[in-house]
Protein backbone atom coordinates (compact mmCIF):
# COMPACT_ATOMS: atom_id res chain seq x y z
CA UNK A 1 0.00 0.00 0.00
CA UNK A 2 2.89 2.26 -0.82
CA UNK A 3 4.23 4.17 2.18
CA UNK A 4 0.85 4.76 3.81
CA UNK A 5 0.73 3.57 7.43
CA UNK A 6 -2.51 2.70 9.19
CA UNK A 7 -2.81 1.90 12.90
CA UNK A 8 -5.78 -0.27 13.77
CA UNK A 9 -7.02 -3.11 15.97
CA UNK A 10 -7.32 -6.70 14.79
CA UNK A 11 -9.55 -9.46 16.15
CA UNK A 12 -7.90 -12.88 16.58
CA UNK A 13 -10.42 -15.65 15.85
CA UNK A 14 -9.35 -19.31 15.95
CA UNK A 15 -12.70 -20.21 14.40
CA UNK A 16 -12.20 -18.12 11.25
CA UNK A 17 -10.99 -20.04 8.21
CA UNK A 18 -8.96 -17.11 6.81
CA UNK A 19 -7.85 -13.51 7.29
CA UNK A 20 -10.54 -10.92 6.57
CA UNK A 21 -10.95 -7.15 6.27
CA UNK A 22 -14.18 -5.18 6.25
CA UNK A 23 -15.18 -4.00 2.77
CA UNK A 24 -16.18 -0.48 3.85
CA UNK A 25 -13.03 -0.06 5.93
CA UNK A 26 -10.78 -1.12 3.05
CA UNK A 27 -12.48 1.42 0.78
CA UNK A 28 -12.26 4.16 3.41
CA UNK A 29 -8.52 3.55 3.90
CA UNK A 30 -7.84 3.40 0.16
CA UNK A 31 -6.56 -0.17 0.28
CA UNK A 32 -6.19 -1.63 -3.20
CA UNK A 33 -8.14 -4.84 -3.81
CA UNK A 34 -8.06 -7.40 -6.60
CA UNK A 35 -10.62 -9.87 -7.95
CA UNK A 36 -10.36 -13.56 -7.09
CA UNK A 37 -10.21 -16.03 -9.95
CA UNK A 38 -13.37 -17.59 -8.58
CA UNK A 39 -15.77 -16.69 -5.73
CA UNK A 40 -14.93 -18.05 -2.28
CA UNK A 41 -17.49 -19.45 0.12
CA UNK A 42 -16.66 -18.60 3.73
CA UNK A 43 -17.07 -21.28 6.36
CA UNK A 44 -15.95 -21.86 9.91
CA UNK A 45 -13.26 -24.50 10.45
CA UNK A 46 -16.04 -26.96 11.29
CA UNK A 47 -17.67 -26.35 7.89
CA UNK A 48 -20.51 -24.07 8.98
CA UNK A 49 -21.27 -21.21 6.54
CA UNK A 50 -20.42 -17.82 8.05
CA UNK A 51 -21.30 -15.42 5.22
CA UNK A 52 -24.25 -15.83 2.86
CA UNK A 53 -22.66 -14.12 -0.13
CA UNK A 54 -19.37 -15.54 -1.47
CA UNK A 55 -16.21 -13.42 -1.34
CA UNK A 56 -15.05 -12.06 -4.69
CA UNK A 57 -12.04 -9.87 -3.78
CA UNK A 58 -8.93 -9.77 -1.64
CA UNK A 59 -6.43 -7.04 -0.87
CA UNK A 60 -3.12 -6.73 -2.61
CA UNK A 61 -0.11 -7.70 -0.51
CA UNK A 62 0.15 -5.56 2.63
CA UNK A 63 2.79 -5.34 5.34
CA UNK A 64 1.40 -6.19 8.77
CA UNK A 65 3.51 -5.01 11.72
CA UNK A 66 2.80 -6.11 15.28
CA UNK A 67 5.40 -4.75 17.72
CA UNK A 68 8.76 -5.99 16.34
CA UNK A 69 7.15 -8.57 14.04
CA UNK A 70 6.54 -7.94 10.33
CA UNK A 71 4.99 -10.05 7.60
CA UNK A 72 3.45 -9.81 4.14
CA UNK A 73 -0.23 -10.70 4.16
CA UNK A 74 -3.44 -10.52 2.10
CA UNK A 75 -6.97 -10.23 3.46
CA UNK A 76 -10.24 -11.45 1.96
CA UNK A 77 -12.67 -8.54 1.59
CA UNK A 78 -16.14 -8.95 3.07
CA UNK A 79 -18.62 -7.31 5.43
CA UNK A 80 -17.61 -7.82 9.06
CA UNK A 81 -18.42 -5.93 12.27
CA UNK A 82 -15.88 -3.95 14.28
CA UNK A 83 -12.95 -4.41 14.56
CA UNK A 84 -12.41 -4.27 10.82
CA UNK A 85 -9.68 -6.93 10.60
CA UNK A 86 -9.80 -10.62 11.55
CA UNK A 87 -6.71 -12.82 11.86
CA UNK A 88 -7.99 -16.36 11.56
CA UNK A 89 -6.99 -19.96 12.19
CA UNK A 90 -4.40 -20.20 9.36
CA UNK A 91 -2.60 -17.14 10.74
CA UNK A 92 -2.55 -18.64 14.23
CA UNK A 93 -1.17 -21.93 12.91
CA UNK A 94 1.58 -20.15 10.98
CA UNK A 95 2.73 -17.93 13.84
CA UNK A 96 1.71 -19.98 16.92
CA UNK A 97 1.75 -16.87 19.13
CA UNK A 98 1.72 -16.85 22.92
CA UNK A 99 -0.89 -14.25 23.84
CA UNK A 100 -1.30 -12.41 27.13
CA UNK A 101 -5.06 -12.05 27.33
CA UNK A 102 -4.72 -9.69 30.30
CA UNK A 103 -2.65 -7.10 28.42
CA UNK A 104 -4.05 -8.06 24.97
CA UNK A 105 -0.55 -8.39 23.55
CA UNK A 106 1.52 -11.08 21.86
CA UNK A 107 4.51 -11.81 24.08
CA UNK A 108 6.15 -14.61 22.07
CA UNK A 109 6.09 -15.94 18.50
CA UNK A 110 6.29 -19.65 17.64
CA UNK A 111 9.43 -21.42 16.39
CA UNK A 112 8.40 -21.45 12.71
CA UNK A 113 7.51 -17.77 12.87
CA UNK A 114 10.85 -16.94 14.49
CA UNK A 115 12.66 -18.81 11.72
CA UNK A 116 10.84 -17.08 8.88
CA UNK A 117 9.18 -13.80 9.85
CA UNK A 118 11.48 -12.50 12.57
CA UNK A 119 14.70 -13.49 10.85
CA UNK A 120 13.54 -11.75 7.68
CA UNK A 121 12.67 -8.66 9.68
CA UNK A 122 16.12 -8.44 11.25
CA UNK A 123 17.67 -8.75 7.79
CA UNK A 124 15.45 -6.30 5.94
CA UNK A 125 14.23 -3.87 8.57
CA UNK A 126 17.24 -3.10 10.71
CA UNK A 127 15.68 0.21 11.67
CA UNK A 128 13.24 -1.55 13.98
CA UNK A 129 15.94 -2.39 16.51
CA UNK A 130 16.86 1.26 16.49
CA UNK A 131 13.22 2.13 17.09
CA UNK A 132 13.23 -0.17 20.10
CA UNK A 133 16.63 1.23 21.14
CA UNK A 134 17.98 -2.25 21.85
CA UNK A 135 21.32 -3.79 20.93
CA UNK A 136 20.29 -7.20 19.57
CA UNK A 137 23.85 -8.50 19.72
CA UNK A 138 23.94 -7.98 23.49
CA UNK A 139 20.94 -10.29 23.95
CA UNK A 140 21.68 -14.03 24.12
CA UNK A 141 20.39 -15.62 20.95
CA UNK A 142 17.91 -17.76 22.91
CA UNK A 143 15.98 -14.64 23.92
CA UNK A 144 16.25 -12.31 20.93
CA UNK A 145 12.64 -12.97 19.98
CA UNK A 146 11.74 -11.31 23.31
CA UNK A 147 13.62 -8.13 22.40
CA UNK A 148 10.83 -5.84 23.57
CA UNK A 149 11.38 -6.81 27.21
CA UNK A 150 14.63 -4.81 26.94
CA UNK A 151 13.10 -1.79 25.20
CA UNK A 152 13.79 1.65 26.66
CA UNK A 153 10.91 3.12 24.67
CA UNK A 154 8.38 0.61 26.00
CA UNK A 155 9.59 1.14 29.57
CA UNK A 156 9.09 4.90 29.20
CA UNK A 157 5.38 4.56 28.36
CA UNK A 158 2.74 5.34 30.96
CA UNK A 159 1.80 1.96 32.50
CA UNK A 160 -1.82 0.85 32.90
CA UNK A 161 -3.75 0.95 36.13
CA UNK A 162 -3.55 -2.39 37.96
CA UNK A 163 -4.73 -3.81 41.30
CA UNK A 164 -1.17 -3.08 42.49
CA UNK A 165 -1.36 0.70 42.06
CA UNK A 166 0.31 2.57 44.92
CA UNK A 167 -2.30 3.74 47.41
CA UNK A 168 -1.48 6.79 49.52
CA UNK A 169 -3.81 6.61 52.52
CA UNK A 170 -3.42 9.45 55.00
CA UNK A 171 -3.94 9.27 58.75
CA UNK A 172 -7.35 10.75 59.67
CA UNK A 173 -7.42 14.52 59.58
CA UNK A 174 -3.94 14.92 58.10
CA UNK A 175 -3.20 17.26 55.18
CA UNK A 176 -0.02 17.05 53.05
CA UNK A 177 2.23 19.97 53.99
CA UNK A 178 3.60 22.57 51.64
CA UNK A 179 7.32 21.92 51.30
CA UNK A 180 10.35 24.10 50.75
CA UNK A 181 10.99 25.64 47.33
CA UNK A 182 14.62 24.88 46.61
CA UNK A 183 16.77 27.23 44.55
CA UNK A 184 18.58 25.59 41.64
CA UNK A 185 21.87 26.36 39.93
CA UNK A 186 21.91 27.10 36.22
CA UNK A 187 22.93 23.51 35.51
CA UNK A 188 20.22 22.18 37.81
CA UNK A 189 17.64 24.51 36.27
CA UNK A 190 18.37 23.08 32.83
CA UNK A 191 18.21 19.51 34.17
CA UNK A 192 14.90 20.28 35.89
CA UNK A 193 13.40 21.67 32.69
CA UNK A 194 14.49 18.54 30.81
CA UNK A 195 13.08 16.29 33.54
CA UNK A 196 9.71 18.06 33.54
CA UNK A 197 9.50 18.18 29.75
CA UNK A 198 10.24 14.46 29.46
CA UNK A 199 7.70 13.58 32.16
CA UNK A 200 4.99 15.67 30.51
CA UNK A 201 5.80 14.15 27.12
CA UNK A 202 5.65 10.60 28.51
CA UNK A 203 2.51 11.36 30.52
CA UNK A 204 4.11 10.30 33.81
CA UNK A 205 3.61 13.74 35.37
CA UNK A 206 1.04 16.47 34.78
CA UNK A 207 0.43 20.07 35.88
CA UNK A 208 -1.19 20.25 39.32
CA UNK A 209 -3.44 22.54 41.33
CA UNK A 210 -3.08 20.39 44.45
CA UNK A 211 -2.79 21.94 47.94
CA UNK A 212 0.20 19.62 48.41
CA UNK A 213 3.61 20.83 47.24
CA UNK A 214 6.76 18.88 48.13
CA UNK A 215 10.15 20.42 47.39
CA UNK A 216 12.17 19.41 44.32
CA UNK A 217 15.97 19.30 44.23
CA UNK A 218 18.93 17.33 42.86
CA UNK A 219 21.68 15.17 44.35
CA UNK A 220 24.91 14.41 42.55
CA UNK A 221 25.47 10.88 41.29
CA UNK A 222 28.83 9.09 41.42
CA UNK A 223 29.39 9.77 37.73
CA UNK A 224 28.84 13.49 38.23
CA UNK A 225 25.30 13.50 36.86
CA UNK A 226 22.24 14.86 38.63
CA UNK A 227 19.54 12.72 40.20
CA UNK A 228 16.13 14.43 40.61
CA UNK A 229 14.61 14.09 44.08
CA UNK A 230 11.34 15.13 45.69
CA UNK A 231 11.27 15.76 49.44
CA UNK A 232 8.36 13.57 50.51
CA UNK A 233 9.30 13.49 54.20
CA UNK A 234 6.27 15.52 55.21
CA UNK A 235 3.90 13.30 53.22
CA UNK A 236 5.52 10.14 54.58
CA UNK A 237 4.95 11.26 58.17
CA UNK A 238 1.18 11.30 57.66
CA UNK A 239 0.89 8.23 55.38
CA UNK A 240 -0.55 4.97 56.72
CA UNK A 241 2.32 2.49 56.41
CA UNK A 242 2.23 -0.63 54.22
CA UNK A 243 4.03 -3.40 56.12
CA UNK A 244 4.38 -5.89 53.26
CA UNK A 245 7.73 -7.61 53.98
CA UNK A 246 10.84 -7.59 51.83
CA UNK A 247 12.49 -11.00 51.30
CA UNK A 248 15.13 -12.32 53.70
CA UNK A 249 18.47 -12.65 51.93
CA UNK A 250 19.68 -15.65 53.96
CA UNK A 251 16.59 -17.63 52.91
CA UNK A 252 17.53 -17.04 49.29
CA UNK A 253 21.13 -18.17 49.74
CA UNK A 254 19.90 -21.44 51.21
CA UNK A 255 17.74 -22.05 48.11
CA UNK A 256 20.73 -21.75 45.76
CA UNK A 257 22.30 -25.02 46.85
CA UNK A 258 23.08 -27.19 43.80
CA UNK A 259 22.64 -24.41 41.24
CA UNK A 260 25.39 -23.99 38.62
CA UNK A 261 23.92 -21.36 36.28
CA UNK A 262 22.80 -17.87 37.24
CA UNK A 263 21.13 -15.00 35.40
CA UNK A 264 20.67 -11.59 36.94
CA UNK A 265 17.97 -9.20 35.67
CA UNK A 266 17.60 -5.53 36.56
CA UNK A 267 14.22 -3.91 35.91
CA UNK A 268 14.33 -0.59 34.09
CA UNK A 269 12.76 2.35 35.96
CA UNK A 270 10.95 -0.25 38.02
CA UNK A 271 9.00 2.04 40.33
CA UNK A 272 7.85 4.11 37.36
CA UNK A 273 6.23 0.95 35.96
CA UNK A 274 3.58 1.13 38.72
CA UNK A 275 0.79 3.71 38.72
CA UNK A 276 -0.37 5.88 41.59
CA UNK A 277 -3.88 4.83 42.60
CA UNK A 278 -6.41 6.93 40.73
CA UNK A 279 -7.48 9.82 42.93
CA UNK A 280 -4.27 9.85 44.97
CA UNK A 281 -2.12 11.66 42.41
CA UNK A 282 -2.69 15.08 44.00
CA UNK A 283 -0.88 13.94 47.15
CA UNK A 284 2.36 13.48 45.17
CA UNK A 285 2.48 17.11 43.98
CA UNK A 286 5.84 18.87 43.92
CA UNK A 287 7.00 22.38 43.15
CA UNK A 288 9.89 23.71 41.10
CA UNK A 289 10.93 27.35 40.58
CA UNK A 290 8.82 27.37 37.42
CA UNK A 291 5.85 25.09 38.06
CA UNK A 292 3.63 22.79 40.12
CA UNK A 293 3.24 19.14 39.06
CA UNK A 294 1.99 15.78 40.28
CA UNK A 295 3.14 12.31 39.33
CA UNK A 296 1.02 9.52 37.87
CA UNK A 297 3.62 6.80 38.49
CA UNK A 298 5.25 5.58 41.69
CA UNK A 299 8.31 7.73 42.49
CA UNK A 300 11.29 7.07 44.72
CA UNK A 301 10.99 8.63 48.14
CA UNK A 302 7.49 7.56 49.14
CA UNK A 303 7.54 5.37 52.24
CA UNK A 304 5.29 2.66 50.80
CA UNK A 305 6.95 2.37 47.38
CA UNK A 306 9.24 -0.58 48.30
CA UNK A 307 6.45 -2.60 49.92
CA UNK A 308 4.03 -1.92 47.06
CA UNK A 309 6.54 -2.91 44.40
CA UNK A 310 7.62 -6.06 46.27
CA UNK A 311 3.97 -7.10 46.55
CA UNK A 312 3.56 -6.55 42.81
CA UNK A 313 6.66 -8.47 41.68
CA UNK A 314 5.90 -11.30 44.12
CA UNK A 315 2.49 -11.78 42.54
CA UNK A 316 3.89 -11.54 39.00
CA UNK A 317 6.46 -14.30 39.65
CA UNK A 318 4.53 -16.16 42.36
CA UNK A 319 4.84 -19.68 40.90
CA UNK A 320 8.58 -19.32 40.19
CA UNK A 321 9.78 -17.77 43.46
CA UNK A 322 11.68 -20.16 45.70
CA UNK A 323 11.87 -22.78 42.97
CA UNK A 324 14.39 -21.20 40.60
CA UNK A 325 13.80 -17.48 40.92
CA UNK A 326 14.28 -14.77 43.55
CA UNK A 327 13.14 -11.16 43.41
CA UNK A 328 14.22 -8.34 45.67
CA UNK A 329 12.45 -5.20 44.47
CA UNK A 330 13.81 -4.54 40.95
CA UNK A 331 16.59 -7.15 41.14
CA UNK A 332 15.81 -10.67 39.93
CA UNK A 333 18.06 -13.74 40.23
CA UNK A 334 17.38 -16.93 38.25
CA UNK A 335 19.27 -20.08 39.26
CA UNK A 336 19.31 -23.58 37.76
CA UNK A 337 21.30 -26.81 37.85
CA UNK A 338 21.71 -27.30 34.08
CA UNK A 339 22.02 -24.94 31.14
CA UNK A 340 19.01 -26.51 29.42
CA UNK A 341 16.66 -25.91 32.32
CA UNK A 342 18.25 -22.52 32.97
CA UNK A 343 17.39 -21.35 29.47
CA UNK A 344 13.80 -22.45 30.04
CA UNK A 345 13.68 -20.66 33.39
CA UNK A 346 15.10 -17.39 32.01
CA UNK A 347 12.68 -17.47 29.09
CA UNK A 348 9.73 -18.06 31.41
CA UNK A 349 10.69 -15.07 33.56
CA UNK A 350 11.21 -12.75 30.58
CA UNK A 351 7.87 -13.79 29.09
CA UNK A 352 6.11 -13.18 32.40
CA UNK A 353 7.70 -9.76 32.80
CA UNK A 354 6.72 -8.76 29.28
CA UNK A 355 3.15 -9.97 29.80
CA UNK A 356 2.91 -7.60 32.78
CA UNK A 357 4.63 -4.72 30.95
CA UNK A 358 7.78 -4.87 33.05
CA UNK A 359 11.07 -4.24 31.26
CA UNK A 360 14.75 -5.05 31.89
CA UNK A 361 17.80 -2.81 31.72
CA UNK A 362 19.91 -4.88 29.33
CA UNK A 363 23.18 -3.17 30.22
CA UNK A 364 22.79 -4.29 33.84
CA UNK A 365 21.70 -7.87 33.13
CA UNK A 366 24.09 -10.86 33.23
CA UNK A 367 23.12 -14.15 31.56
CA UNK A 368 24.17 -17.78 32.09
CA UNK A 369 26.88 -17.03 34.65
CA UNK A 370 28.69 -19.60 36.83
CA UNK A 371 29.36 -16.82 39.33
CA UNK A 372 27.79 -13.39 39.81
CA UNK A 373 27.21 -10.70 42.42
CA UNK A 374 23.72 -10.16 43.75
CA UNK A 375 22.68 -7.74 46.50
CA UNK A 376 26.32 -7.46 47.56
CA UNK A 377 26.89 -11.21 47.74
CA UNK A 378 29.07 -13.30 45.45
CA UNK A 379 26.86 -16.09 44.11
CA UNK A 380 28.35 -19.29 42.66
CA UNK A 381 27.96 -23.07 42.67
CA UNK A 382 29.81 -23.07 46.01
CA UNK A 383 27.25 -20.77 47.65
CA UNK A 384 25.63 -22.47 50.59
Automatic annotation (TrEMBL):
One Pfam family linked to the record: RVP_2
GO molecular function: RNA-DNA hybrid ribonuclease activity
Gene3D superfamilies cross-referenced by the UniProt entry: 3.30.70.270, Acid Proteases, HIV Type 1 Reverse Transcriptase, subunit A, domain 1
Enzyme nomenclature, EC number: 3.1.26.4
Record domain Reverse transcriptase: where: 200-379
CDD domains referenced in this protein's UniProt entry, alphabetically: retropepsin_like (cd00303), RT_LTR (cd01647)
PROSITE patterns attached to this UniProt entry: RT_POL
Domain of life: Eukaryota
Family: Belongs to the beta type-B retroviral polymerase family. HERV class-II K(HML-2) pol subfamily.
This protein's name: ribonuclease H
Amino acid sequence: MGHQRIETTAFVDSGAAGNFIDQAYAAQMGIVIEALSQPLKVTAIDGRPLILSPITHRTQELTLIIDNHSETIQFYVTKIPSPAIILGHPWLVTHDPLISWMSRRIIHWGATCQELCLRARVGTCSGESGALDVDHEAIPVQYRDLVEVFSRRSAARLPPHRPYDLAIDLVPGAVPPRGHLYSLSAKEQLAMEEYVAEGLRAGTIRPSSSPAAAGFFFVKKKDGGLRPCVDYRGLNQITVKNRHPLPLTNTTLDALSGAHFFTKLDLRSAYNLVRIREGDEWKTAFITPTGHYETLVMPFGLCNSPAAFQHFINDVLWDMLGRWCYAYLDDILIYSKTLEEHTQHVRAVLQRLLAHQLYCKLEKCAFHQHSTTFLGFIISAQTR
